[in-house]
Amino acid sequence: MKCCVKVLAALTVLAAVFAGCGTVGPGRELRFGTGDKGGKYHLYGTNFARAISSEDNTLTFRMRNTAGSAANLRLLGEGFLDVAIVQSDMLADALKGTGRFEKNGPQTGYAALAGIYTEACQIVVADASEIRSVHDLAGKRISLGEKESGGLQNALQILSAHGLSGEMIEPEYLSFTDAAAALERGEIDAFFCTAGTPTKAITELAGKMPLRWLAISPEILQSMMRQYDGYTPCSIPAGTYPGQTGEISTPGVKAVLVVSATVSDKEAEAMTKFLFTHGDKLSAAVELQNELNPSYATSGVPGGFHAGAAGYYKARGMEVPVYDGPKARRINGKQD
Hints:
By secondary structure, this protein is α/β, with parallel strands linked by helices. The chain has helices at about 1-20, 40-55, 70-75, 90-95, 150-160, 175-185, 200-205, 220-225, 265-285, 295-300, 305-315; strands at about 30-35, 60-65, 85, 110-125, 140-145, 170, 190-195, 210-215, 230-235, 250-260. It is globular and about 55 Å long. The termini are far apart.
């Protein structure tokens, strides 16, 4: 409960910071894909959109809650979204036409603005459970994440790295919020959740019942990093959640802010600039502990950056690869 109060207080502070910076006026409405309401994509995306619209009345957004990264990338590619947050590993698969995107081949039509924070691959069980390691998940009822989420792929890859397959468990495909509720009711034995920490759905559940998190060994993590793109070592510090007394080692992936190629250079540059001029306030509002900077934002991001974002980085002495996909899908191609 204290954590929820802190989030609400931080949101109030953020709203006050941007009050008086301008009112939302007419402008092209950008459709912004986030994720489950119990995760960081929704919280970060809605705060980003509200704050930048308050400062720049030419940028307005219509928020869309989706199943997560795979859904966001599909919807961007099909022209149903203009802006989205996605996992770096899913973005790499989309651009190469591998993993979930193998059937349709390499995808085009979108580019990165910045990597904004690290997401932890979390595996949550009740503290009273006899499950002590990933190997113990065999035969258990497990939520792997929603069917178009990046977390589902992470869950299957973590299971595979431990010699388990989807057929060796009883899988469920639930959102973070629904998975937390199912664990509380005893309907599942564990759930996977790839999200920035602390994750709202898990914080709220930890306030209702004692929880434990399964750690991933360094050997398994190194094996996964050799086999798949996008993973990085990650640790969840002790005290991140109520009742969490020890640090948890687990794989991490980077959350990347991505835009359609139809977003103009001017719009893309404005969004990128806003990330760095107000990033600390945004991170504080959603209880992210990372400190956003251009080096972090551009490292380990698959594919090219939107020309508007690349222009922002170049003005600060940083060269990044520029997206050069289908030009016909771009509008307002010149900066002005």
